[in-house]
Amino acid sequence: MEPRTIRSTSRALGAPDLLVVAAELVRVPMEEILPVLSEGLAPLVGHTVAADLSPQCAHSPFKTHRQAEPAPRIAVTDLQALGPRVVPGHPWQGTAAVGGEERTVLAVASGAGATTDRPALLVLVRERSDTELPTADAEAVQHLWDLVTGHRTRITNEAVPGALAQSRATAGERARVIAELGEAHEAALTALLGVLRAKDLDDRAARSRAVDLAVSALVALRAEADRDQELTEEPAGEAFARLADSLKPLLRHSDVRLEFAPPEAETAEMSVPGDVVHLTRAAVRAVVLAMAAQEGVRRIHVRWQLAGCQLLASVRDDGPGELPRSALDTHRVGRRLAALGGTLAVDALPGWGTTVTATLPLGAPETPRADPLAGLHPREAEVLAHLARGHRNRTIAQELHISESTVKFHVANILAKLGVSSRGEAAAVLHAVA
User: Fold this and answer.
1) Nearest to 336 by CA among 409, 283, 403
2) Integer Cα distance of 71 and 259 in angstroms
3) Fewest CB atoms less than 10 Å from the CB: which of 20, 54, 133, 162?
C-alpha cells in the first residue's frame, strides 16, 4: 500500500475507537496486523513509520509500515539497539538513532504470552519532536501492543494451519531474497578484494584501507545473516527443552510420569525453522493430553529426532493401546501438520500401548494454488464481496465497522493477490469462480 499523507496533529481516541481498533486487530491476518495498528494509532500518535520486532513471529520478526512521506528507513539494528532501553509495560519516549539520524520516537515493549525472554518491541517514529505524548495516550498504545503480542503468541502456539502455511510461504520467499542479496554482495566484495590486491597497484596505503573496508563489509553482511537466523530459527536442543518445560505443569497433579529423550548431541545444535518448532510443540502437547486422558496410562515417553531433512517427534504411552486417531481430531493435529507438509502416524497395539509419530520436513514444500481466491483471507473475501456489489470504500467501511484506510489497505492486497489492476477486474474474478 502506498504511504499516505496524514495530519501532523493528533487527537484523542475514545474507548469506542480503541475497541474498534482492537477488534480489527484480532480479525485481520498476521501480516496485516502492523498496518492496521499503525492506521488505528495515527490519530492518537502522529507518526511517519511504525516498526515491529517480535521474536514470537516465526518468520517475519521484523516489519515496518510507512504511514507518511517522507519516512526514514528503519533497520532491524535500530530496534535491537533501542530494545534494552524499553521496559515491558512502561512506554518509553525520547530520541533514538533511526535511519542514521536522531529522531523522536515512542517505543513500547510487551512480553504478553511470550515463549521467549525477548519482548516484542513496537516503535513509532513521531512526526512532531517538540511535544511529549500524554501518559494516558502512551498507555493506550501499550495496551493495544500487549493485545497484539498476546494474540500473535496464541496463534503461533496453537499452530493454526492457515497461519502456518502463510508463514512458510513468507519464509521461503524471504530466504530466497536474502540468499540472492547475500550472494550478490559477497561476489561484488570478493571481486573488489581481488582487484585491490593486484600487484600492479602502487598506492599501498589506499589499497590497505580499501581492503579493510571490504573485509568489514563482508563481516557485517555475515553478521546480519546470523542475526536473521537467530530471530527465525531455534536450536533443536533448546526447542525441546522449552517443550519439556511446558509439558510438566500439565501433568503436575497426575499419576502419569513423563519421560524425555532430547535430540542426540550431534543434532542438538542444528537450527530448526520457527514454524516447525511451534507446530511440533503444539502437536506433541495435544498428543500428550489425549494419551493422559486414557485409563491405565502411567508413563508417557516423548522423543525428538532429526534425521536427514526431517524432524520426527514421537510420543509413546504404556496404556491399553486403543487410542483412536479420532481422539486427536479435536486438536486438529493432522490438519496442522499437513499445513507444512507433515504427516501423523498412530500405531496402537492392544495391550502394549500407543505410539504417535509426527514427521515434519525442515524445508518449504511447494503447494501450487488452483483457486484464484485461495490466497485471500476472510476479511479480504468480505471486502471483495462488497466490491463485486459495486460498493465504495465508505460504504464498505460502514458495513464492516472498519476505517476507510483499512478498506484501502484490503483492496490493495486483493488486487495484488488476484493479479488485477482495478476493482472491476477483481469483481470479475469473483463472478467467474462463483
Assistant:
1) 283
2) 53
3) 162
Q: Helix, strand or coil for residue 195?
A: helix
Q: At CA 334, angle to CA 329 and CA 338, rounded to 5?
A: 150
As a whole number of angstroms, the distance between CA 403 and CA 401 comes to 7
CA distance 342 to 358: 7
Give the torsion sign (CA, 208, 210, 211, 216): positive
The type of residue at 323 is: L
* H or E element in which residue 125 lies: strand 120-126
Return the closest-CA partner of residue 373 out of 316, 431, 319. 431
| Grid cell at residue 414 | 486483493
At residue 280, the pLDDT reads 84
Contact 122, 241 (CB under 8 A): no
- The amino acid occupying position 228 is D
3-state secondary structure of 354: strand
User: What tens digit of pLDDT does each residue of 387-415 get?
Assistant: 888 899 999 988 888 888 888 888 888 88
Closest CA to 311 of 284, 348, 329: 284
Cell output for 136: 494516558
Give me 120's grid cell.
Answer: 516484542
The set of residues, in sequence order, having a beta carbon less than 8 Å from that of 433 and lying 6+ positions away, is 371, 372, 373
- 3-class DSSP assignment, residue 102: strand
Q: Give the integer Cα–Cα distance in Å for 243 and 265.
A: 17
Q: pLDDT by residue (tens digit) across 181-205? A: 555 565 556 656 665 666 666 666 6
